[in-house]
Specification:
- This protein has 17 helices and 12 strands.
- The protein is α/β, with parallel strands linked by helices.
- It has a single domain (40-210, 256-408), classed as TIM Barrel.
- The strands form 3 sheets. It has an 8-stranded parallel barrel, surrounded by 8 helices. Strands 1-12 form a two-stranded antiparallel ribbon. Strands 2-3 form a two-stranded antiparallel ribbon.
- It comes from Cyphellophora attinorum.
């Protein structure tokens, strides 16, 4: 099962990820047991067993009744791969380059906040796995460990910083400075979440960790501007952690103060000044008009995303938005993708429809909740192995060969789901 001495192992610039399958098939001969089944549905079920109710809701809740989440998943079915036969896949590679960084695959860790509710080591473990696998890591500014500590955990890895822009300009600029000082090489502004959408289960349970046990996490309490704001408000975070947490979130993260295109040049200028011109990206773009506006303003990259269905219920699927946006501006700006990715085939389809890079979220979150750092590593290695084997089996040895010709698409039809919470 897959020659462990295949010449491709030495010819490629990344590990032969697909050999993980051979190792797993051989493992029983050595009395080894796998950490857990990597089928996305099995991962989801196990994570639900492991997490507290609050942790499970935060990892799985969608806006409204999950129609956008369902749209994301069904659109992956609608777009289908066309395998090619008798292609030389003996020399193949999953490596890609993003903003000058050579990475082991076109797959990155999407920015997800407050990882400590999934496992005590939180973002630190995720950042370490990203470094070990040479994959892109993106830290959320709603994280539970400090920017500085996550930077250290990621070491010489490639890392981006995701910003929820505070209406307090001094606070926003200080976050950029901290990110740059900690080795983050690009800024990603999330544009779709000034305010959390209505999520039934979270609202019913009062499930908002920042108002409860986690407060400001490690980012707010290590920020000199925010500490000054606490002092000005006469709040002692040691004695009143919940008040401090509420102030951090309500005034700096999900504050409900919408920013506009008019404000964007200022933020971009601040980041470029601080970082010496490093990439500035927007996350949450879903319309062609917005993508064109980003190009017009000189943004370096966009992430086509609907926040995995967590912000606008009944919205267009990210994959369908990607196709239109890539056709319109794919030759003018770096187009990335996020939302609903569960498999190597999903990654392939997003690349084929125009993405240069694909972010993964809930899979690694659930892996973290199941077995910490080992769980994240197991999930991501399996995803890389699945993608590597798909390249071979489908006949696409190079990332550059995965394009629109590799996909056939079924007609767009409206189908009422029997279970809108499909994994």
């Amino acid at each position: 099962m897959s020659d462990p001495n295949n010449p491709n192992i030495h010819a490629r610039s990344t590990p032969q990820w697909g050999l993980m399958q051979r190792e797993m098939f051989w493992a029983p001969n050595e009395g080894k047991v796998q950490p857990f089944n990597t089928d996305p549905e099995e991962i989801r079920k196990l994570a639900k067993e492991k997490l507290s109710q609050g942790g499970w809701y935060y990892s799985s809740c969608n806006a409204g009744i999950s129609w956008t989440h369902y749209a994301n998943r069904t659109s992956f079915y609608r777009h289908q791969i066309i395998p090619r036969m008798l292609v030389d896949t003996n020399i193949r590679d999953s490596a890609t380059t993003l903003f000058g960084h050579k990475l082991a695959g076109p797959i990155g860790f999407a920015p997800i906040g407050i990882n400590r509710i999934y496992h005590p080591t939180g973002e630190l473990s995720v950042a370490k796995v990203a470094k070990d696998l040479n994959l892109l890591y993106c830290l959320s500014s709603a994280g539970s460990y400090s920017i500085e500590d996550v930077g250290k955990a990621n070491g010489d890895g490639v890392r981006f910083f995701q910003l929820y822009q505070s209406p307090d300009d001094e606070q926003a600029v200080n976050m950029l400075q901290r990110a740059y000082d900690s080795g983050f090489t690009a800024l990603m502004l999330t544009t779709d979440t000034w305010q959390l959408a209505w999520r039934h289960n979270d609202a019913y349970e009062g499930n908002y960790a920042f108002y409860h046990e986690h407060g400001t996490g490690g980012i707010g309490l290590n920020d000199k501007v925010f500490l000054q704001r606490l002092k000005e408000a006469n709040i002692d975070p040691a004695k009143e952690p919940k008040k401090a947490g509420a102030k951090w979130m309500d005034e700096n993260i999900w504050h409900g103060h919408s920013h506009t295109w008019e404000k964007l040049p200022w933020l971009m200028e601040q980041w470029k000044r601080i970082s010496g011109g490093k990439p500035f990206c927007l996350k949450g773009i879903q319309s062609v008009a917005d993508a064109k506006k980003a190009v017009e303003l000189g943004v370096d990259g966009i992430v086509v995303s609907n926040h995995a269905g967590r912000q606008v219920d009944g919205a267009i699927s990210s994959l369908d938005a990607l196709e239109k946006i890539a056709e319109a501006v794919g030759d003018k700006i770096v187009v990335m993708y996020d939302s609903g990715v569960r498999t190597g085939a999903d990654v392939f389809k997003a690349l084929a429809l125009g993405a240069k890079f694909v972010f993964v979220g809930r899979l690694w979150v659930w892996g973290l909740s199941i077995r910490g750092q080992q769980g994240v590593d197991h999930v991501m290695r399996a995803l890389l192995a699945e993608f590597d084997l798909l390249q071979e089996c489908a006949g696409y040895p190079k990332i550059s060969e995965i394009n629109r010709d590799a996909i056939d698409s079924l007609p767009r039809v409206a189908i009422m789901p029997s279970d809108p919470n499909i994994v």
